[in-house]
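tool=predict chain=A
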Amino acid sequence: MNENLIAPSILSADFARLGEEVDNVLAAGADMVHFDVMDNHYVPNLTIGPLVCEALRKHGVEAPIDVHLMIRPVDRIIPDFAAAGATYITFHPEASEHVDRTLQLIQGEGCKSGLVFNPATPLTHLQHVMDKVDMVLLMSVNPGFSGQSFLSSALDKLREARKLIDASGRDIRLEIDGGVKVDNIGQIHAAGADTFVAGSAIFGAGRAEDPHTYDSVIGAMREVLAGSGC
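tool=predict ok
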């Protein structure tokens, strides 16, 4: 199984000082920066675009940037995020007319590709495109807003996805997004996840303007992960 990665979602960060926020969570031990891109069409919210990704790269962020597209259609914006410095680009199969083509487009732009599955979306698409997927992202909340509670049904789905990935023999990350906290990250890891998106659990804890708070939260997550098994 892959090394465990923690990916704070900037959706919960203070956008008035975004560069500083990202610097602080990375200094505290985060591995990736997670982008929640929403269009007020596929999901009921409007967030950020490629310019924010580009701005963080120009700011000096060198860590992988994990772009989760909650938009429809997706193909038009993929080259823009690739040019802006995205590392991973993931999308929902419902948002693409041709899932295989969109995966090829992402990889053709030099990024790692992935599919995202909502709580009620089955994993059947994976059977046909596993050779073009670098990441599988399971939503443990319904997409559109930060701060939602973890849906326990995601645990069985994680186990199912882990079996598919292991059977494929491919190097594919299994990511979870939604309601991930210190008190549940252990059972999420035990169900098969190796990449953990956490927004409010990390950035919300740092509202006291003390970057050391990020150290304590991410450190606590690492401690739990080190003690849990898959």
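Strands lie at 5-8, 33-38, 65-70, 88-91, 112-117, 135-139, 173-177, 195-198. The mean pLDDT is 93.
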